Amino acid sequence: MHSIPVIAVDAMGGDIGPSVNVPGAIQAARTFGIKVILVGNEELINAELDRLPLKGVAYEVVHTDEVAGMDEKPSDILRRKKNASIQIACRLVKEGKADGIVSAGNSGATVACGMFIIGRIAGVERPALASVMPTEKNPIVLLDVGANVDCKPQHLFQFGLMANAFARDLLEYESPRIGLLSIGEEEGKGNTQVKEAYDLFKLTNDINFLGNVEGRDLFTGEVDVVVCDGFVGNVALKLSEGLSTSMGRLLKRQLMSSTIAKIGALLAKKAFKKFAKIVDYAEYGGAPVLGLKGIAIVCHGASNDKAIFNAVKMASTFVRKKTNERLVEAISANEELASLGRAIKN
């Protein structure tokens, strides 16, 4: 264990690269008293560091010229780009030199490198990609949102266990309300995968399982964690993002449609700013990959320095609160139920 959290940041990742990754990471290190390791082209990183106040900031630069392209296959990156910044960042965690990673680069490569380099927690069958999303009340955790397209009932069950620990430590929910995404609220609704996962959830006393929830329940704030497979979760996430963007454009168009509407928009300016902050992905930093031996945060490719700052904050909080220890305890305590799920499918 390090005396302070150490987070490796893929300085070359994302659409913008070092010009946002470096200042975001350095600001997080200064604000939260942690250390960041900036992985990437040393010349480009140092050019950004020269623009920043660094007194009292714990940081290190690890040089590499190789970068994982945003359009490259994760399998190709794993096999052919051993010195890509994301691979090196993950190896720092495996070697115990860092506690976690943050990357706005190729999301598939980040998940793959996390699984095959950092490795899974013992007992975890499938690490899951979680997304923190705004609702009418408090944020929720939706998972999986793309790491596992094809899931078995015991995978969904383990997702719920891991998300429960994450929501307690990172969102500070005392007893997170967990729902299973289905086509109806009643028990017995859904496909075979969902029905069998429902039965596993009912058998554990370690979480606050509410039962099935529908897509319309995602944003009401009546549930804290929503569990689904990566195919459904990714569709739900992208649909939510697209709807938010389109609604914003439609609203702007209407507000600019007449003089009276423009006056109304001016009077409601503060409210619109607050709303924009609530739905801004940068406020949440990124999506954690739960179930790895170290934390990995996958950021949006278009992340700005604020998003990187919040992603590093999330990673350091995960480390400080020892959330992985709770994940290990939850998985271990419910191994018999996970085994039951495997037996049912066989």
Automatic annotation (TrEMBL):
Pfam family, one: FA_synthesis
The keyword Lipid metabolism is annotated on this UniProt entry: yes
Gene Ontology BP annotations: fatty acid biosynthetic process; phospholipid biosynthetic process
Gene3D superfamilies in UniProt: Isopropylmalate Dehydrogenase
This protein's UniProt keywords: Acyltransferase, Cytoplasm, Lipid biosynthesis, Lipid metabolism, Phospholipid biosynthesis, Phospholipid metabolism, Transferase
Pathway it works in: Lipid metabolism; phospholipid metabolism
Main location: cytoplasm
Enzymatic reactions: a fatty acyl-[ACP] + phosphate = an acyl phosphate + holo-[ACP]
Superkingdom, taxonomy of origin: Bacteria
Residues annotated as signal peptide: none
Entries under HAMAP family matching the protein: PlsX (MF_00019)
Family: Belongs to the PlsX family.
Role of this protein: Catalyzes the reversible formation of acyl-phosphate (acyl-PO(4)) from acyl-[acyl-carrier-protein] (acyl-ACP). This enzyme utilizes acyl-ACP as fatty acyl donor, but not acyl-CoA.
Quaternary data: Homodimer. Probably interacts with PlsY.
Record protein name field: Phosphate acyltransferase
Gene: plsX
